[in-house]
Amino acid sequence: EAGVTQFPSHSVIEKGQTVTLRCDPISGHDNLYWYRRVMGKEIKFLLHFVKESKQDESGMPNNRFLAERTGGTYSTLKVQPAELEDSGVYFCASSRRDSDRSQYFGPGTRLTVL
Amino acid sequence: GDSVTQMEGPVTLSEEAFLTINCTYTATGYPSLFWYVQYPGEGLQLLLKATKADDKGSNKGFEATYRKETTSFHLEKGSVQVSDSAVYFCALSDSGYSTLTFGKGTMLLVSP
Questions:
Q1: Which of A101, A106, A107 sits opposite B98 (nearest CB)?
Q2: pLDDT tens digits, one per residue of B26-62
Q3: Please, which residues have CB within 8 angstroms of residue A53's CB and are 6 or more apart in sequence?
Q4: Distance, in angstroms, between A104 CA and closest chain B CA?
Q5: Where are the beta strands (DSSP E) in A38-87?
Q6: B104 and A42 in contact (C-beta within 8 Å)?
Q7: A107/B104 CB distance under 8 A
């Protein structure tokens, strides 16, 4: 079974540009999560999809961040326009909908905003 | 709100030494507890979990016991290897919610 995949693995952009991160969850996992780790800080929750619906987006820092999960499969996270403080590692995770909700993480996308 | 506190790192050990990484938590409900590991250059991997008080999670020689009375979930391993060098994250998922709250992570460095 393939794991969670994320693309790109690294992205370096300038302040004011737009970046789109992609996450492909494990096949059959209805739950999809985005997290972010800023240098030296905890990994923080951003938002949670159940299939194509946003279940919880309380962790999204501001309206420069837009997440979508059309069709309930892969998800994208767009940052527009990017700011310096958006730099960090963005993780995606997925889980099943049954009683075992263990979350399985992708390798992350390291975003650097210059 | 929920929070997880881990011991500061890095933790530096010699091969075959005993490992303990402390983790305590604050939660309003009855959370599930997790340890994740991130090896160099890789993503987070679920190492072990426990879903209720007194449960012991174990995997790859690592163990952690859910202690409700002390709100702790300390990670232990009897004999570490160089290949265990990684960053270890303690996390919780509160009852009724599925999002994870993480600690800051503890780097473990094991030398031959």
A1: A101
A2: 998 789 999 999 998 888 999 999 998 999 999 999 9
A3: none
A4: 7
A5: 43-50, 53-56, 65-68, 75-79
A6: yes
A7: no
